[in-house]
TrEMBL record:
The keyword Phosphoprotein applies. Keywords: Phosphoprotein. InterPro entries: ANTAR, CheY-like_superfamily, Sig_transdc_resp-reg_antiterm, Sig_transdc_resp-reg_receiver, WH-like_DNA-bd_sf. Residues 5-119 form the Response regulatory domain. Residues 125-186 form the ANTAR domain. This is Response regulator.
């Protein structure tokens, strides 16, 4: 595991100190520390860490709520810490986008595998979201192109392949993307 930049949020300074020591001994850098969820969000937005480790029970904003906001903004993977392993808390943590959950006291033998898994899952999620965006863009492009081809086919009595060739030629001649040409054709037809 390469050197990570980490934010720690826990209202107990002893826990923050212990975690920081464990992480720094393993070669990581703790770039920010705080004692509440609001500050954790602010530090995460500002410092762009590779990982956030935070307690569930904190003043002003609890760790589950803060983790949800960090997760929704796709800022960093979050590992939640708690002194409790109650089923309702675990359920809330699952729904917050948290990628790992550890019960205190934290030991290196539990912490570092949880970090590896959280980072791995976070990267998988980012990759899947990127692939989904590519698919959505491709589908949107396909719809635009089909509509533009249909407009040309109707207007000039062309076959589908002839309409596509005209779009392609115009795209190359004007140095525009096929999507831009298709959008222009659709705009012109709907005026």
């Amino acid at each position: 595991m390469s050197k990570l930049k980490i934010v720690i949020a826990d209202n107990e300074s002893i826990i923050r100190m212990d975690l920081k020591e464990m992480l720094e001994e393993a070669g990581h850098e703790v770039v920010g520390e705080c004692f509440n969820g609001l500050k954790a969000i602010e530090l995460t937005q500002r410092l762009k860490p590779d990982l956030v480790i935070m307690d569930i029970k904190m003043p002003e904003m609890d760790g589950i709520t803060a983790a949800k906001r960090i997760s929704d903004q796709k800022l960093a993977p979050v590992i939640l810490l708690t002194a409790f392993s109650q089923k309702d808390i675990v359920e809330k943590a699952k729904n917050s986008g948290v990628l790992a959950y550890l019960v205190k006291p934290i030991k290196p033998s539990n912490l570092f595998p949880a970090i590896e898994i959280a980072l791995s899952r976070f990267n998988e999620i980012k990759q899947l979201e990127s692939e989904l965006d590519d698919i959505k863009n491709s589908l949107e492009m396909r719809k635009l192109l089909d509509r533009a081809k249909g407009i040309l086919m109707d207007a000039y009595n062309l076959s589908e392949s002839e309409a596509y060739r005209r779009i392609q030629k115009y795209s190359m001649a004007k140095r525009k993307t096929i999507k831009e040409v298709a959008q222009s054709i659709i705009r012109a037809a709907t005026k």
